[in-house]
Amino acid sequence: MSASVTPANRNPGFGILMVDDEASFLRSLSMVLERRGGYNHLYRCQDSRDALAMIAREPIGLVLLDLTMPHVPGEELLKQITEQHPGVGVIIISGLNQVEKAVHCIRLGAFDYFVKTTEEDRLIEGVRRAVEMQEMRLENQAMRRKFLTDTLERPEVFSPIITRDKGMRSVFQYLESVAPSGQPVLVSGESGVGKELIAHAIHELSNRPGRLVCVNVAGLDDNVFADTLFGHSRGAFTGADQARVGMVEQAGEGTLFLDEIGDLSMASQVKLLRLLQEGEYYPLGSDKPKRIRARVVVATHRDLEQKQLAGEFRKDLYYRLRIHQVEIPSLRERKGDIPLLLDHFLAEAATELSKSKPTVPKELAVLLDNYSFPGNVRELRALAYDAMSQHRTGVLSMDSFRRALDQNSISRDVTSEPSIAFFSPDQPLPTLQEMADMLVDEAMRRSQGNQSIASSLLGISQPALSKRLKKKADDSSS
Ligand SMILES: Nc1ncnc2c1ncn2[C@@H]1O[C@H](COP(=O)(O)OP(=O)(O)OP(=O)(O)O)[C@@H](O)[C@H]1O
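Output (structure tokens, whole complex):
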């Protein structure tokens, strides 16, 4: 392995061992894997008797194995590898006249085979497939280990993400498992759930030497997309007085985070697919290809599967992106996080505004617990900052929360579809009075008996609610 390859920039995370008695073939195979595949975590073995010891010593995950070798022939070595190292994948590289034997090797457990004269494209595609399978297998193993022990190896990486939710913890465990892989990660979830924070965590976990470069691709037309990502050479178009490096190059060996990927135009989707598949791109106006060294992380609040089925998102790109996928739960699916986040944002806002942290009324937790937070954590953060900007001393006023939540409930009512089937067509309708009583009961239950909050939920004043409750109590006692 070359000295410039460090644990952080190894690609793939496990080693690829090439075993062949011909030094010249080992050299040319290494070159193809490096130049065409972008792989740098390579080991060569020219004496088949040393292969098993190398597999035991080095972190080998995939072996490219010649069939015809002195000492231990390839077929024999394959048997020993599958027996002693069942987790290591093997691809057979055979001569033209050995296809039958190569097929037999597949039955013995080899992943695939290629004849030595196979054109480079097919060979690289086969190795890529094997690498992806192997990465997924290793990640599954790591996931299983983590779930069984319920541990995080690097909890400090997640410290900016305030949560005590089990689902979020599983997301963190999953991210730790996929962090060493060079494959893309698709982060999905509603707007404001913290997808960008997750992208930062993925970058930190990966230990990659380069930067994290974030690009919001929503609304970029195809030319701007290509220019932003790939850069241009001087004179590439009118006004291009200077060459400019694109975001892909700025990310170096780090992470390129493409946000709002669900809004990418069809033309730009083709460019992104080519970048991920070939690992190569051309700056505008240049005919010299460059290689991407960064890992790609993408995020979207849209349902990509749905978009793909509707023909608005390329299927091949979708499959390429979702090799590793995490869904960040919405805030209403992890309501236990609301008090924690509120406390965090109030403290943050207090520091920023040079105020002392207020006492939070108990009713506020109940009020927020009953709200659906369409804007998720971003919305809660904005509410906390707004309340703090108006706060003077002592107990935090709930007014700004009430106002914002009422406002949101109204706009939600206006825009939402009146499609929910509340009533079964074969049942008699309840009377208005019965319905009103049911609503009042539900609001009182949700507000844990707090009339001020229940009245907000019902959209009536507190005295009006109080009057209704009194009447209800009188009716039932008479
Ligand atoms: N768990 C969390 N802990 C602390 N802050 C959070 C958390 N989740 C989100 N935030 C904060 O909420 C705001 C929105 O988060 P972020 O931009 O990561 O959301 P997003 O999912 O990427 O949104 P969009 O889809 O609109 O791009 C940011 O200020 C972020 O710091």
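The first helix runs from residue 23 to 35.
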